[in-house]
Automatic annotation (TrEMBL):
Lineage: unclassified sequences, metagenomes, ecological metagenomes
GO molecular function annotations of the record: DNA binding
Organism of origin: freshwater metagenome
The protein's name: Unannotated protein
Domain Helix-turn-helix: 13-61
Length: 67
């Protein structure tokens, strides 16, 4: 977490569609990641929002050396 105080008032939130576009995957893949707990999200009404830092952290942790 980039903000150790826990204050998320200045956090940037992305929609599932924005996360899917950023990761170049389908929205269903993002929903699966959210529901499995691999990608933290908050529910707002009937939709989900993902902190930009959480999406970036998930991508950073997902890299592996293929060679």
């Amino acid at each position: 977490m980039s903000n150790p105080t826990g204050d998320i008032s200045d956090a940037q939130f992305l929609t599932v569609a924005e996360v899917a576009a950023m990761m170049r995957v389908s929205k269903m893949t993002v929903y699966r990641l959210v529901h499995s707990g691999e990608l933290p999200a908050v529910r707002v009404g009937r939709s989900f929002r993902v902190r930009e830092t959480d999406a970036n952290e998930y991508l950073r942790k997902s890299f592996y050396d293929a060679g």
